[in-house]
């Protein structure tokens, strides 16, 4: 059925051009199709050619799939009027594209001499390693010269980062002026950001989040030059969109200009042109609906007759935009039938020849090459940046007369204080760094960790956001792509799950699916884990990191003590700045203000500040662990965060009771895990206890650590102590499901028995 409909639609266009007669009067190339329009005959013919190219590539995709040589059949057929956007937007207007954007892609690349949109698309369809967009990793629309960052989104999950990019354009300009940074990207001051999506996707929570964030930012007085383009084909796979749903939903929203592009190609052109001009001049959010149709089903495997009547399908095919555009150009005298037939024939011949050649191009065959752009490791560069000494005079201008490392033992500080001081140093080291989130500005954070940052670095670099984690991570991605170095804060670990796809599906995939040509470096600060006393319940005491650890390429640093926190933050920032990495910095809330280790008043958890003095140990990188009593050999305890503190306490009790000594290892990095270090220390001790404060089943690191030891032939004894598989209740009941000091002691006795 699908192949038959493709043939029928193609034959309709051929028959129209074969039977058509030229207009009585032909337009000169620079004459417009109608008075008041800016669409000239020459540009209209170019648009038709780009539309034909897109359609021909869709036909080729299905032919390649039938031969087992192509791997993607979601087509742009019926959406070709989006070519007007590609022609009217500038190559320096970033475009985050819907997957039905073939014609837009072709018309956009027409503006860049030497571009080869047909060849590029065919390499992508055949998953060739020479695909310039993703290196053969996925079928995406992408181009570094054309400022088209590849998107894998099918549910409008790219909208928040498009809004973030539009918002960050203005923020970047302020920093360029205020900090004298020079241009942060190659985007002109009047650039706009465009993101396109379907009518069904416009209902998704992520889309609503993005559009709401743009309106909110505009209401707050910020420039947000974002062009939302809804390509409305009135259907999401098999589910029909109610009539006028998109217009009724968005047409009357305040702080959002609405345009509806319908009608002939010149009418659509003029509406698109006005929408872009409004967005560019007013620096304000614009919602543009383009009326489209969907031909041939959702994808090649979708049999439309399962949910549509043949009469309905035929009525849709009669509205084919290629048919309508050809008729319009012929009746207005913008082209002759022969000119349009020539475009059709030459495009088909060109695509067919390129298609045959594309199938012969090399594929990805090396796993190392596949993952190469995912998580680059450049330790020498990281260490050089992270350990570079900071100017003492510049630091005194921030901290005052006494620097943090000059404090006496009487003023040793907590974990929260050391993170705060390290953030000050890193904001000084990295002038492109911006820090934002809920309550981080004037309030200084719920736990005081960001106090005085806004006062010392200004609102351009430290600011509050609306209460929406999706927006926070979207702003981070957009800001990173225009040259900034974001430090977004997620107020509680449990809140991240509302928005984790912005890390999993978007931020961490960008470098991978763009073959390293686009990056969004960031360090995401997350307050998390459990053991808060008298506060919380599961939303504020979340002991699960499994959803973070499964994200390819995501690094996770987790300090337990103040000095380590400063060193880890420097390493994390260097990874982001030098290699474009996405790093999460997981801060254990219960240890923020902890002072004591063994006894009340011993202040054993307070530490001195490690000076950013250029020494090699001023920073910590993946693989570098902390070890307490490194000469002890009776037992190795492996833990992190709260578990590390509890393990130190349990190990002391065990030593006092038996005279035996435990070596206690602080992982510091939860992804990648420091397996080599754990194996080395395990070999020296031959008995290993893993203390994992997260839930027992897949939520922490114990499974991975024990599996690695087993797979590398560790012959000693291994046990683990883990939290229970339960949400954390309030008050003292929390202690019944979390790992306790007594449980650790019991585990020690079992593994050493």
Q: Biggest sheet, strands in spatial order? A: 9-8-10-11-13-12-17
Give the count of structural domains: 3
Terminal Cα separation, in Å?
71 Å
- The CATH architecture of the largest domain is 3-Layer(aba) Sandwich
Uncertain segments of ≥5 residues (pLDDT<50)?
A: none
Strand count: 19
Report the CATH topology name of the largest domain.
Rossmann fold
CATH superfamily membership of the largest domain, which one? Thiamin diphosphate (ThDP)-binding fold, Pyr/PP domains
**Structural class based on helices, strands and sheet pairing:** alpha/beta
Tally the helices: 27
Beta content: 5-15%
Principal-axis shape equals elongated
Radius of gyration equals 29 Å
What CATH first level of the largest domain would be assigned? Answer: Alpha Beta
Q: Describe it for me?
A:
By secondary structure, the chain is α/β, with parallel strands linked by helices. It folds into three domains: 361 residues, 3-Layer(aba) Sandwich (Rossmann fold); 240 residues, Rossmann fold (3-Layer(aba) Sandwich), CATH 3.40.50; 126 residues, Rossmann fold (3-Layer(aba) Sandwich). Helices cover 41% and strands 12% of the residues. The strands form four sheets. Strands 9-8-10-11-13-12-17 form a seven-stranded mixed β-sheet. Strands 1-2-3-7-6 form a five-stranded parallel β-sheet. Helix 9 links the parallel strand 6 and strand 7. The longest helix is centred in the first third of the chain and has 26 residues. The chain is elongated and about 105 Å long. It starts with a helix and ends with a helix.
